[in-house]
Amino acid sequence: MTLRLARFFVLLSLFPGIALAQAWPNQPITILMGFPAGSGVDVVARLLEEPMSRSLGTKLVMDYRVGAGGNLASEAVARARPDGYTILFGTAATHGVNAALYKKLPFDVEADFTPIAPMVNVSNVLTVNPNVIDASTLKEFIDKVKAAPGKYNYASTGNGTGTHLAFAEFTSRAGLEMVHVPYKGGPEALTSVVSGTTCCIFNQVQTVLPQWKAGKVRLLGVTTRSRVSAVPDVPTIAEAGVPGYESYTWFGLFGPKGLDADIVNKINAAVKFALEQPAVRDRLVQLGNTPRWESPEQFRATVKADRAKWAAVVKQVGATID
Questions:
Q1: Is pLDDT at 21 greater than 60 in this prediction?
Q2: Rounded to an integer, what distance in angstroms lies between the CA atom of residue 210 and that of residue 225?
């Protein structure tokens, strides 16, 4: 071995991070999912999985750590090595709502994570079982609920989740008195509406479409500022009777704190590549999502603004956990 080569290996031993960054990725990347298979989060993740894998040159492995409003998955990533092989599929709930909702979290939603990239904006839609409440418009729904305070209940994906807070804000603005029934996730909550156990729910457009097309539920209003192209005849809640109301969520990727900037940029570029694929974009739009890409710096600002927004909503509706 020459003296020059020996010095090279000595340098590698002193700075292993250099060799790691240059070689990354050289093994599968695990994406921790805080919500169950079949949820809206899972649908989007599966759509982006193949093109992202192609861009990164390695396999993506979905690891479901469901529970505590996504906090189980978040904690695992917050404690993971910042080597780029463990990242989080986060949402406005995990990094906006939970910071205000939970009095004690085993991590800091700002300091313990590295924002990488958003993927989509997601609209919810007021979904009702017509056998429980026979309303064809938002106005009819509001009138019937006002006429029977406390009679009707609404489902959510869990106490303090985005769907709960969005519905609670809606009832507050509309002057409605309803009973909240939390479930452990989106599939269970939607099933409760379809079966008639609960009256209604704010559900992601993409997950409710099959039930709507089958005639099992009615859609009375989307929660976003503008109508959703997947259901163009469904008005916004603001235009249909509750002026000023707006609510949506986003999905995005996060790494642990200290994640190397080159790795962050590679994953960010892979998200951008996936969203640029016509088949992926078209399918996302068909499901009621709006593709969204930002630089890591822009996404960090988005997350910060969303925390402030949801903190105000949590305070307004008086929600709290532990």
A1: no
A2: 24
